[in-house]
Design brief:
alpha+beta, D-amino Acid Aminotransferase, Chain A, domain 1, D-amino Acid Aminotransferase, Chain A, domain 2, ten-stranded mixed sheet, 8 helices, 19 strands, binds pyridoxal-5'-phosphate, branched-chain-amino-acid transaminase activity
């Protein structure tokens, strides 16, 4: 009795802030109107077909986290002065759920996405939460949506956790209200008919991220300007931008970037830019570094390299292959780099990719679809 009175009192005094939401408290409202599963073929458009349910949990500065909800997929109703619409208080994650040949649903290293979401939220002064509780919410949500995880290799259910500031005030201040939600959408193989290598355009005048900025966080504001830049270069026949910072190669489009080359000393080296404020710490990037280090067949380096070193290596025939890396495609072969009025052709041993690119794709796919048992697989099923 007294404890109830006390807890009521302290709630109204705002002292008992809920510092996290809890997976055990999720309120679930199943849909009565399930959507139909689309045909799983190359007509499926990336992330267009959303699933039956939506997960969300609200936060405000007085109460802290509210009760998490899973309900039929629905529009969000937000005040037009919500800070996400005006000051870019939005961050997100991208991950996938895969079905194995034995009908198990797997996630791939989800704890890394959870950690990254917490970091992105902190960069925007959005509230923190318990990572393990969020992972358990995600697991419950994916379990409820398991019929949407396609049982066809290469296809998966894309998961988009998102956090927004919903503070209703036009002042530029720390959001006093926020919403964390998750939507799921069906995705097919990025390359349904085999690899489609991309041509890159490199222009020192266009910048994605800068030292001391938030290029290492998945915040929405990093991506809008890139869309307009990319639109311009697609008209010139290129697909992605190769981003530089002070002449150093950083990322490609919205992927991390790798080059396999022979150094001037004749050593074979797989190289990618080191993690700093200009590089997004990709789960795929980390997986590629870990796997290739385990293989131990060539030197694996995270170090700074310049566009001049790269084009010089192409000219001297030292580049073996190059590729982008990210959850959507896993790896994406690069066939060409445009720099200062000149196209540099990147070799592709297999015609549409290099040997390492193909090997990494096959290996990571077989972990994701449970063909290889690996500690990176996280089983959703209870
Ligand atoms: C998401 C993203 C990546 C890839 O990260 P993954 O975790 O491998 O999907 C790389 N670069 C940028 C800029 C990104 O937004």
């Amino acid at each position: 009795m007294w404890s109830r009175v006390y807890s009521k009192l302290s709630n109204t005094c705002g002292r008992r802030l809920n510092s996290t939401f809890r997976a055990s408290e999720i309120v679930i409202d199943h849909t009565n109107n399930p959507k139909t599963m689309p045909v799983l073929d190359e007509t499926l458009i990336f992330g267009k077909k959303t699933t039956d349910h939506l997960f969300w949990v609200d936060w405000d500065a007085k109460k802290g986290w509210h009760t998490p909800q899973i309900a039929p997929y629905q529009p969000l109703v937000l005040d037009p002065t919500s800070s996400c619409f005006h000051y870019g208080t939005e961050c997100f994650e991208g991950m996938k759920a895969y079905k194995t040949a034995h009908d198990k649903v797997l996630l791939f290293r989800p704890e890394m996405n959870v950690r990254r979401l917490k970091k992105s939220a902190a960069a925007l002064a959005l509230p923190d939460f318990d990572g393990e509780e969020f992972l358990q919410c995600l697991r419950k949500f994916v379990d409820i949506e398991r019929k949407w995880v396609p049982n066809k290799k290469g296809y998966s259910m894309y998961i988009r956790p998102t956090m927004i500031g919903t503070h209703q005030q036009l002042g530029v201040t720390k959001p006093a209200k926020a919403k964390l939600f998750i939507v799921n959408a069906l995705v097919g193989p990025y390359f349904p008919t085999g690899f489609k290598p991309v041509a890159l355009y490199c222009d020192e005048a266009r910048v994605r991220a800068w030292p001391g900025g938030v290029g290492d966080k998945k915040v929405g504001g990093n991506y809008g300007p890139g869309i307009a830049y990319t639109d311009e270069i697609t008209k010139l026949g290129y697909q992605q931008l190769l981003w530089l910072v002070n002449g150093n190669v950083t990322e490609v489009g919205t992927m991390n970037f790798f080059v396999l080359w022979k150094t001037k000393e004749g050593e074979t080296e797989l190289i990618t830019a080191p993690l700093d404020s200009t590089i997004l710490e990709g789960v795929t990037r980390d997986s590629i570094l870990t796997l290739t280090k385990e293989w131990g067949e060539f030197k694996v380096s995270e170090r700074t390299f310049s566009i001049h070193e790269l084009v010089e290596a192409v000219d001297q025939g030292r580049v073996i292959e190059a590729f982008g890396a990210g959850t959507a495609c896993i790896v994406c072969p690069v066939k060409k780099i445009h720099f200062k009025g000149k196209d540099y052709d990147i070799p592709m041993k297999l015609g549409n990719s290099g040997l390492l690119t193909k090997r990494l794709l096959d290996h990571i796919l077989s972990i994701q679809y449970g063909e290889i048992h690996h500690p990176w697989s996280y089983q959703v099923d209870y």
